[in-house]
Give the backbone structure.
Amino acid sequence: MNYISYTFEIKSKTLAVQTAMEILIAELGAVGFESFTEKENGLIAYIQKKDWFEGVLDDIQLLQSDEVVITYDMEEIEPVNWNSEWEKNFEPIQVDGLVSIRAPFHEDPHLKYDIVIEPKMSFGTGHHETTHLMIQHLMNIDLKGKSVLDMGCGTGILAIFAEMKGASKLDAIDIDSWCYENSMENVDRNKCKNISVYEGDASLLQDKKYDVIIANINRNILLQDIRVYAKILNKNGILLLSGFYTEDIPVIEKEAKNNHLKLVKKLARNNWAGLKLEIF
């Protein structure tokens, strides 16, 4: 399939570049862009050519904001074998000597947990700091017999790991159709039996209840949905959050407290944060 790519450069006046980037990704996702590559001062956004139209950026409010100056270039990309592209650079990784994350063509290192994924264009290879942080948190939580939600599941890696640790009922949800399909593939690849994958957002969570919720999403979406997560956590439930920088912890913690959640543990990796919260 053919893609259209937009390369955005962000120059901030009063708004932090990372915050502007998160807002831009959210707005672009709402009009059909399905994959993003973050850069130091901007990002590259991809949309399938069949979904593109002349005024695709007309409703992107951030482009009209006085707080930032955003410039961009557009180009059409010929069909690409995405598998071969990531295979060129995808190296297996290990987390704390206990978890291996690898592609099918990598040798099994025979650690306690072995996760095999083909990420294609989906987020969640384990290389990004936020995925690494969530795996570290999950390693220290007893998941046996627990119900788990992986919100913004990407490749499905965190739901897969949670089942390996004994979770008995899991839902994995992502708004991106590519992520939905890729998670289905990876769930099957790892022979998981207890994971249901859905395409959608927090509106799917009505009448749901979970012991553990994992949400590795951008800061603005988390701030919007923390109240939803708090309502669907069981007694003594745990909420794991990542997808934001350490300087964002105070605003995340404030919203959590407003919804009867307390911060009990925080991890950081290269200025990215991973938080563990509990109901109080």
